[in-house]
Amino acid sequence: MSVIDSVSLPRSLRLPRIDGLIQWIVPLAIIAIWQVASVTGFVPTRVLPAPSDVLMAGWKLLLSGELVRNIWVSFWRASIGFLIGGSIGFAFGLANGLSQLSAKLTDTTLQMVRNVPHLALIPLVILWFGIDESAKLFLVALGVFFPIYLNTLHGIRTVDPQLIEMGRIYGMTDGELFRRVIFPGALPSIFVGIRFALGIMWLTLIVAETIAASSGLGYMAMQAREFMLIDVVVLSILIYALLGKLADSASRVLERLTLSWHPAFQKR
Amino acid sequence: MQTAVRTSLPETELASRVNFAPHARIVREVQTSGLPLSIRGLRKSFGSNEVLRGIDLHIPAGQFVAIVGKSGCGKSTLLRLIAGLDKIDAGSISFGQDTQPKDIQPEDIRVMFQEPRLLPWARVLGNVEVGLGRDRTSADAHARAEKALAEVGLADKRDQWPSVLSGGQKQRVALGRALVSSPRVLAFDEPLGALDALTRISMQRLLERVWRDQGFTAILVTHDVAEAVALADRVLVIEEGASLMMSWFTRAGRASAARPSLRVWKARS
Ligand SMILES: Nc1ncnc2c1ncn2[C@@H]1O[C@H](COP(=O)(O)OP(=O)(O)O)[C@@H](O)[C@H]1O
Ligand SMILES: [Mg+2]
After folding, report:
1. Which of B46, B53, B67, B240 to mutate to test the pocket of ligand 1 (most atoms within 8 A of CB)?
2. Which residue in the set A163, A259, A263 is minimally distant from B119, CB to CB?
3. Stretch A151-160: mean pLDDT
4. Where does chain B have alpha helices with state H?
5. ipTM of the prediction
6. Which of A29, A71, B1, B175 has the most C-beta neighbours closer than 10 Å?
7. What confidence score (pLDDT) does residue A71 get?
8. Rg (CA), chain B
9. pLDDT by residue (tens digit) across B171-218?
10. Smallest Cα distance from A214 to chain B, Å
């Protein structure tokens, strides 16, 4: 205990659990200001409905079951697309990180494909798959593939060669070396890839559902636009934001659990 | 027992030890678990850069040898060859008696580097267990690792992550990992090079103690001549061009200022 510590505020005077709450201050403040601006007529409700109106619209959709169904459809597409693209990206990242031959064979091709914005493929994908589920899954998987591939590859390539040599000196087999040295060493980078991929996953899904879908959140928003239901449009956007935040938090929790050895995740 | 032999050798016997008189060797080998080591005509080049140009060296079992020399003269290269980490261009390195070369196990030879090379994602005890090699999965792995950790004075840190340890403590964990398989040859490549002066002194004491306790053959590469003199039975100097100039040092002579304790002559030129 330093002198500074002992003269600072006693525990009871500090705000309890402030760390967990502090991140919500700004979003809540924005909603409060928004509500006030709408109620006072500063912002016309044709442009932006009040948060309370959005909440009401959400409640109605919730009662009709439409909201849950659409969220579920979008969530399902996002997860399946992420799993497919993520596993393929991870597999290629592993292969190219561990094998020179594999890297020579596929890396250049993959780098070339990477330079095509995957959303530019939407017309082609519609021609191929129509507005079927597979169209959305394909696009999400393609979008998720690259950040996971690149970061897995980078993670494996940047594992400290001295640690790998240490593992070999101490008689680790290839399997042990991978499990105990290479994979844990690449994990922080893989998580960076996952966080990037989650962002791209939502972006791709919104665009795909807006353009070519008959269900899901993006479809709900487009339908609402046709009927001028601006509160439902805003609701869809907010739900996207919430789901995005949720996915990010989930990956952070996972990161905290698996990287507890990392100095950045240690409690002082 | 070992100390008694080292400190009580009369002057004449010292000289004979230096010349590898057979009886002196036998005396050491009875008491040590270390392996003797013979290097003959060892050569190593990297491309056109010939780093080692014919090294001849015999290290009796259980001896503590220090190798000093300017930076870049090939000390690490020599050590890596001894540890089997790089390929020999020409010449030979053999362990055990010349007449009956032994089949050595990988666990018999361990290296310690300047960097601790600990796995950041394994706890201290897990890092020490890595040193067991193929015995890692045996039932007594935990107990052996704990014993090695106690030997280097870090028993209370067993469940810590390496990132919270100081530089000296990390190096002690690395020493524990090297010791846990009870190696018969332990090679050190500037193991204390990155430590501050005070930590270095306590680490030197620790190295000397574990060497006395366990009796392995120790090969220490260092750029610090004082450290070499403080720890080793015998100091070797690698010169430009990698010919070996040999210096002899005896522990018995260290305490006495009256007689010259360091004798130097050129073995090869
Ligand atoms: N893997 C390598 N490839 C090429 N050159 C090397 C390699 N390892 C060492 N060398 C060269 O060999 C020489 C001796 O290096 P080293 O044994 O590390 O010296 P020291 O440990 O005595 O400082 C240096 O000139 C170094 O550049
Ligand atoms: Mg060196």
Report:
1. B46
2. A163
3. 97
4. 2-8, 11-18, 22-31, 75-82, 124-130, 141-151, 167-179, 197-214, 225-231, 251-254
5. 0.78
6. B175
7. 93
8. 18
9. 999 999 999 999 999 999 999 988 898 999 999 999 999 999 999 999
10. 47
- Taking the CA of residue B221 as reference, the ligand 1 atom at the shortest distance is 21
**Pocket (CB within 6 angstroms of ligand 1):** B 46, 49, 51, 69, 71-77
**pLDDT at residue A208 tops 70:** yes
Residue B5 belongs to a domain: no
Residue indicated by tokens 């002198």: A3
Residue B211 lies in a domain: yes
Find residue B57's DSSP bridge partners: B39
| Residues in A touching B115 (Cβ below 8 Å) | 162
Residue A14 has what pLDDT?
53
What are the C-alpha distances in Å from B195 to residues A71, A122, B123?
Answer: 58, 59, 22
Q: Which of B49, B52, B82, B221 to mutate to test the pocket of ligand 1 (most atoms within 8 A of CB)?
A: B49
Number of domains, chain B: 1
Look at residue B14 in the predicted model and tell me its pLDDT.
Answer: 39
pTM: 0.80
What CATH number should be reported for the domain whose range is A49-265? 1.10.3720.10
For residue B260, is it within any domain? yes
Q: Is B199 within the bounds of a domain?
A: yes
User: How near does any CA of chain A get to the CA of B5, in Å?
Assistant: 34
Confidence tier at B97 by pLDDT (50, 70, 90): low
- Domain assignments of chain A as residue spans, ordered by start: 49-265
Kindly report each contact of residues B48-52 with a partner whose C-beta sits within 8 Å and lies 24 or more positions away, as own/partner. Answer: B50/B242, B51/B77, B51/B242, B52/B77, B52/B78, B52/B81, B52/B242
Q: What is the CATH number of the domain that holds B201?
A: 3.40.50.300
Instruction: Please give the biggest Cα pair distance in chain A.
Output: 74
Work out the average pLDDT over B91-101.
71
- The predicted-structure confidence for B111-153, as pLDDT tens digits, reads as follows 999 999 999 999 999 999 999 988 888 888 899 999 999 999 9
**For chain A, what is the total number of helices (H) and then of strands (E)?**
13, 0
Amino acid code (one letter) for A131: I
